[in-house]
Structure formats: structure tokens, C-alpha cells
Design a protein that fits this description.
Elements: H1 5-13, E1 25-27, E2 30-34, E3 38-44, E4 54-58, E5 62-67, E6 70-76, E7 87-91, E8 95-101, E9 113-115, E10 118-120, H2 123-141
Antiparallel strand pairs: 1-2, 2-3, 3-8, 4-5, 5-6, 7-8, 9-10
């Protein structure tokens, strides 16, 4: 599986900030990205694709997608999701958007790949994803705190630094 080099170039040029939106991982079929709660999968499909051409199976640890009889995506997810809350939509007859809800919804649960052994974010993109989740967590813990231009430095793994003792 190809690493996210295209996403890396795009993300590097954008100064990292909350407003910049998700940190995507580019894949041969589209891209995927995540928040603390959800994983979003965007799959480019041939223009004019209809809902009936799409076969999508979303289980807690497994995803399978076929379009017009061709397998696009299939495998074991990186971590478990809540199957009942998983959805897929076909947009403008050319994009399938799959939304998965993570079972473990905290900033430390940053998926490093979409499937267990495929579509991994490269280390730089993983770091950006982890920063994103850390910022998201910080915003929840500190509503009203404006840090749109803030640079976070340090180690982000396992949910990042502890902000609980910050001066208000």
C-alpha cells in the first residue's frame, strides 16, 4: 500500500491549525481521515455511479466495498467501530463517503492506518493526525480558548501532553 506522500506535500504547505480541517491520508482510491470520534473514508468512483452499483458492508472490524462488481476496498479495520452507527453515502454520483464511529473515542486512539495492514499514513502524516486529535481534545477540555495560531510542540503519542494544569 502506498504511503501518504501526496497528502504530506499538501499538508506541509498548510500551516497546521484547527481551521485547516482534517489531515488526510491519500490512497489509490481516494483518501481517509479521522477525528477523535470518527473515521471518514472518501472513495472516488466512476462518474455516473448509482446507489444500486454499490455494495458496501460495514462491520465493527471489517469493511468491504465493491462498485459495479469490482472490489475497491476490503479488509480488517485498524481498530473496532460501532457497526450500527456506520453509514455510507454516494455523492454527486462520483464519491462514496463512509463514516465509521470509533469504539474507543479518545485522543490517544489515533489510527495509523485504515485497514490493519493497508493504507497506512506515513510517519509525518501520522504525527499531524495525532496533533489534530490532541488539539480536538484540548478544545473540548477548554471551551472558548482561542489557539487558532498555536503551535503545539512535544510528543503527541497516546493523546499528547496533559493540559489539565494550564493557567486560565
Amino acid at each position: 500500500a502506498g504511503a501518504c506522500t501526496a497528502a504530506r506535500a499538501a499538508a506541509m504547505s498548510a500551516h497546521f491549525e484547527e481551521r485547516s480541517g482534517p489531515v488526510p491520508c491519500a490512497t489509490p482510491w481516494g483518501r481517509w481521515y479521522q477525528t477523535m470520534e470518527e473515521v471518514f473514508v472518501e472513495v472516488n468512483v466512476p462518474e455516473g455511479t448509482r446507489g444500486r452499483d454499490v455494495k458496501c458492508s460495514l462491520q465493527s472490524r471489517h469493511l468491504a466495498l465493491a462498485v459495479a462488481g469490482k472490489e475497491v476496498l476490503k479488509g480488517k479495520l485498524f481498530d473496532s467501530t460501532i457497526a450500527d452507527e456506520a453509514t455510507w453515502t454516494l455523492e454527486d454520483r462520483k464519491l462514496i463517503r463512509i463514516i465509521l464511529t470509533k469504539t474507543n473515542r479518545d485522543a490517544g486512539n489515533c489510527w495509523s492506518s485504515l485497514l490493519e495492514n493497508e493504507y497506512a499514513a506515513d510517519p509525518w502524516v501520522q504525527d499531524q493526525m495525532q496533533r489534530k486529535l490532541t488539539l480536538e481534545r484540548f478544545q473540548r477540555e477548554n471551551p472558548g480558548f482561542d489557539f487558532s495560531g498555536a503551535e503545539i510542540s512535544g510528543n503527541y503519542s497516546k493523546g499528547g501532553p496533559d493540559f489539565s494544569n494550564l493557567e486560565r
